[in-house]
Amino acid sequence: MKLYHLSSGPLRVNTYFLVGDEGKAVVIDSGENYNAVVRTAERYGLHIDAVLLTHAHFDHAGNVKKLQDGGAKIYVGEKDAEKLLNDDNLASSFGRRFEKCRADVTLKEGDVVEEAGLKIKVLETPGHTDGSLTYLIGNMLFTGDTLFLESVGRTDFPSGSRSQLINSIRKLFALDGDFDVYPGHEEFTTLTHERKYNTFADYD
Ligand SMILES: [Zn+2]
Fold first, then answer.
1. Distance (Å, rounded) from C-alpha 25 to C-alpha 123?
2. CATH of residue 154
3. Is the pTM of this model over 0.85?
4. Domain boundaries, position 152
């Protein structure tokens, strides 16, 4: 499997392209900038089979309708699916446009997504939103706005919960072994680094 990374949009969202069989790709958080995603796919000769959203906020999910229209299957946490259809994706509060989208598949704890010859495990990590997910493949975790380098996501948006977020961080820290951590914004990190330096798990 190959991994490509794109940082785009005014909020510098991280978009990840996981490449499986024959140039088929699964995109994690397609962001807002449709053209940047399409150009990246073209640059590396990828076909986007599916988009997996860590959550439904507009900066991560703003272009999913266009990608769906282009043939990609859209996956989102079952509790965030409605946010692709209402104002809880925060687009209107940030003055952004958002094309509403009905996801093709909704996900919950323990589901395994099989796309492009890849198997991606779903962990529910609520707190930033109630439907926030972390995706696990091999030794990689895609944590969206749940876990950042020495930080965590905001919990002051609709359906956010600080106590849930702390529990989600603890759940990730309790995973066995080390993982590379690919967050929804900012720099990559590792679970070992976060267990040592991220102080939010101690919060009460
Ligand atoms: Zn968010």
1. 21
2. 3.60.15.10
3. yes
4. 2-202
